[in-house]
Amino acid sequence: MTQKELDKLQEKALAQLKSGESLFGKEGAFAPMLQSFIEAALEAEMDEHLDTDERSKGNKRNGKGRKTIKSSAGSFEIETPQDRQSSFDPQLIKKRETVLADSLQDKIIGLYGLGMSLRDISAHISEMYDTELSHTVLSQITDRIIPEVKAWQSRPLEEVYCIVWLDAMHYKVREEGRVTHKALYNILGINREGYKQVLGCYVSESEGANFWLQVLSDMQNRGLQDILIACTDNLTGFKEAIESVYPKADVQSCIVHQIRNSLKYVASKDQKEFMRDLKQVYRADTKDLAELALQDLADKWEAKYPIVIQSWQNNWDKLTTYFQYTPPIRTLIYTTNAVEGYHRQLRKVTKTKGAFTSDMALLKLIYLATKNIEKKWTSPLQNWALTVQQLAIRYGDRLPLDLTRNHEK
């Protein structure tokens, strides 16, 4: 491109900017400017490639090829230099590459992480940049984060987490022409500084204590040596799975899960009164008072709802761990609200998905959504300075507090 042509393009770009016209697309000024830059850069790469050694082998320029490049400045055709021995491997625009990754990849992955479908992303890119991208190309671009996902899944963890919530979500995944239901296991932890961290996400056929055992073993292999308090749903065998890997952990089953499961078996006309009586149990000030309230509940309702009362009695030890702690800690651990809040944000991103094409397609979106969610976790939990001191007093050497340590996330 001559200086005169460049000056004209600059004038065009300035005029479009002032008038509010798009600088992108077929009529925009940016596409030919980017085209000129790319062609000049490829020529420089070819000059560097055809050094003395290459020329001594008889290699030299051999005309030019043409291909259409798709970028955020629109689609445009470029001339690509060629060499006789076809050993030239350009780095700016690689062989068989038709999408300028540096300009569109981050935008595409960002949109994908917000839950947009490949069809919607394709329409958005077409509207914004006058560039058509197939689903195959978009899928290939999003696949570039797979190494990041795998590295994130296997990254080292801190040695101690004060509170860890373990819960599962359920999604549909298409496998071999049929749709199957998969469980997505999520682990959310609070470290010694009071910051929330997603420790891991795992996909399995269904939720079960056996798979949770594998998950816990994986976290141990990644460096997590001790969990002070583990908060779970009421899955059978969950407590035993946790204690087999972290024998010192205090396990608290979720009261909210227990209440929901109970109300399934209470007639609608009795639910309001039953809940009023049940609140006296789980909101009691001490475990002794809670046990008295549970006995009153049984005296009143056991004849009518024996299975519900029996469930509370059988799970009592797992449901009442929180009575060992002060009120601020109790509110953190007797429900799985923290991890359910994380799940709500994930559902906002995944709610439009019918069935994922693979486990990795699910994990890619969960990973990107999680990175966006974690950007908001910039402060420790409220009143954490007081809470962690109470935990340190209770757990002693298991939770050493380094007062000289720089408390950053």
From TrEMBL:
Keywords: DNA recombination, DNA-binding, Transposable element, Transposition. Residues 48-57 have a biased composition (Basic and acidic residues). InterPro entries: Transposase_mutator. GO terms for biological process: DNA transposition. Residues 58-69 have a biased composition (Basic residues). Belongs to the transposase mutator family. This is Mutator family transposase. Pfam families: Transposase_mut. The lineage of its organism: Bacteria, Pseudomonadati, Balneolota, Balneolia, Balneolales. The keyword DNA-binding applies. Residues 48-89 are annotated as: Disordered. The keyword DNA-binding applies. Required for the transposition of the insertion element. GO terms for molecular function: DNA binding; transposase activity. PANTHER family: MUTATOR FAMILY TRANSPOSASE (PTHR33217:SF8), TRANSPOSASE FOR INSERTION SEQUENCE ELEMENT IS1081 (PTHR33217).
